[in-house]
From TrEMBL:
Coiled-coil intervals, chain numbering: none
Signal peptide extent: none
UniProt entry keywords in alphabetical sequence: Lyase, Magnesium, Metal-binding
InterPro entries per UniProt: Isoprenoid_synthase_dom_sf, Terpene_cyclase-like_2
Necessary cofactors: Mg(2+)
GO terms, molecular function: metal ion binding; terpene synthase activity
Family annotation (PANTHER family): BETA-PINACENE SYNTHASE-RELATED, TERPENE SYNTHASE
Name of the protein this chain belongs to: Terpene synthase
Any GO BP annotation: isoprenoid biosynthetic process
EC number, UniProt record: 4.2.3.-
Family stated for the protein in its record: Belongs to the terpene synthase family.
Source species, domain of life: Eukaryota
Amino acid sequence: MQATTYTGTTPTAIAGIASTKIILPDLVSHCSFDIKINRHRKQATAASKKWLFRGDTNLTLKKRRSFHGLKAGLLTSMCYPDAGYPQLRVCCDFMNYLFNLDNLSDDMDMTGTQTTADVVINSLYHPNTYHTSSRAGRMTKDYWRRLLSTSTRGPQQRFVETFDFFFQAITQQAQDREDGVIPDLESYIALRRDTSGCKPCWALIEYANNLNIPDEIMEHPVIRSLGEAANDLVTWSNDLFSYNVEQSKGDTHNMIPVVMNEQGLDLQSAVDFVGDLCKQSIDRFNDDRINLPSWGAKIDKEVGIYVNGLAHWIVGSLHWSFESERYFGKNGRDVKSTRVVDLLPRRA
């Protein structure tokens, strides 16, 4: 992997130009998919928060408020709008759990990330024989046992394999952070497709909709391309929306500083560059959707539900990003309207 060492220059000044604000690309208008919200949203959200908070002695009032403002239940309900309550609840639990892991991994070194990975992956592969007192392990076993009781084998296997990839990727991310490395764009894209955590969420589309699509069809190049296009949109748009908070902490695991560093662009030009890539990923998804092959009426119906699930993730994640307080605080709707983001000062 070609990379450069990050020497402490703020990401907003990598190209030599200090900035005080950025203008986000208009991704919402570029995405024409319909928004749906699951009718079990309130019930599943309340139950999942209770599950997340239970037994967490380190959960301060500030962290509790942060999770309320996250609105992970809304995201889940927009991304799995047709799921029954038991399936939606499992998806909600995983989403809350994944955000919790993401927050923890931001503060972990490589050793801490690897230790957590060992606990979680062993809990998934050996839910009945692996024993741990770790809270992450207990939570993993809890939602995983519920998923196993109602899921077919294919989604189970894809979930475990892709979650394993997630931990391998965030371990590499932790190593890059320790070494002060900004990867090249190609390497970053490959790594980001796994650090996003989207791939196990795609397996949950199958689970949430009670699908049983054969493995060879899920491995078909067009199906894989659709999943990759959806992953890229969710991931790269997230880099745009999370950039402000991340730059204030000096975090360079984001496509914007990667592009600035590799191509010598100023901040706004890098934002525009990433925005164009996001729009291209939506266009790729639409093109692949038109070119879906046919496998017969029964399988085509299930494949159609799966592809619709990817579309729900694309449009749901875009709109949720402005409803959540994770990226723009309580100003999300104003930012959605104006697309102007005032940059936070760099933290000491």
